[in-house]
């Protein structure tokens, strides 16, 4: 492991806005009370990478709380560092495997989930690893409140189509759908937030798919 990665791992261990593995478990059901000191809606960004979406959402919506989740501490370091440097107090980061999300959030604790440019896991053998597979969706249903929604942004047409198929099979509610976000009327301030990877995809003239859906 390089010196920069070692330094970053050492730093995030002391950041007050980063929680790793079991250190986040005591906050289950109490993120707003113990971390954010308010009762605002709680929003998750899954596979957040460097946290660009969580950071920018936190700036746009100071009346909401955001948690970026990823397993790679080297990436989380960047988002957490930016939040500290810019004094963004309504965002935090959790370093866990997303399949363990039920260990860290209580039923009905979350109001929204963002999944921005996740690994599409294209091999059939890795379907269960897709963040919109039925196994993951069942977990999201537990932690989302009654009116909670899921947002998916992806350049991967196959993942977009796969997710639509699962939504139909599970009889979920689609609130908004487009296969060309920036060619549609939906690209507002929020949906136009661009991650590092999205900028790369757009530079290759890829179109961006977007889905907003929920369980009722």
Describe this structure in words.
The protein has 216 residues and is of the alpha/beta class. It has helices at 3-12, 31-36, 52-60, 73-85, 134-143, 157-169, 196-203, and strands at 18-20, 42-46, 65-70, 91-95, 110-116, 144-154, 173-178, 209-214. It has a single domain, classed as Vaccinia Virus protein VP39 (Rossmann fold, 3-Layer(aba) Sandwich). It contains seven helices and eight strands, in the order αβαβαβαββαβαβαβ. α1 (3-12) crosses α4. The chain is globular.
The major β-sheet equals: 8 strands, mixed
SS element count, helices: 7
Q: Structurally, how many domains make up the residues?
A: 1
Anisotropy-based shape: globular
Sequence of strands across the biggest β-sheet: 1-4-3-2-5-6-8-7
Give the number of DSSP strands.
8
CATH superfamily grouping:
Vaccinia Virus protein VP39
Report the C-alpha radius of gyration, rounded: 17 Å
How would you spell out the order of helices and strands?
HEHEHEHEEHEHEHE
The CATH architecture classification is: 3-Layer(aba) Sandwich
How much strand content do the residues show? 15-25%
Mean pLDDT across every amino acid position = 94
Look at the structure and give the CATH class.
Alpha Beta
| Helix share, percent | 25-40%
Oligomer: single chain
Structural class: alpha/beta
Query: Residue ranges: pLDDT <50 for 5 or more in a row?
Result: none
Task: Spell out the key features of this protein.
Rossmann fold; globular; eight-stranded mixed sheet; alpha/beta; 7 helices; 216 residues; single chain
SSE arrangement:
Elements: H1 3-12, E1 18-20, H2 31-36, E2 42-46, H3 52-60, E3 65-70, H4 73-85, E4 91-95, E5 110-116, H5 134-143, E6 144-154, H6 157-169, E7 173-178, H7 196-203, E8 209-214
Parallel strand pairs: 1-4, 2-3, 2-5, 3-4, 5-6
Antiparallel strand pairs: 6-8, 7-8
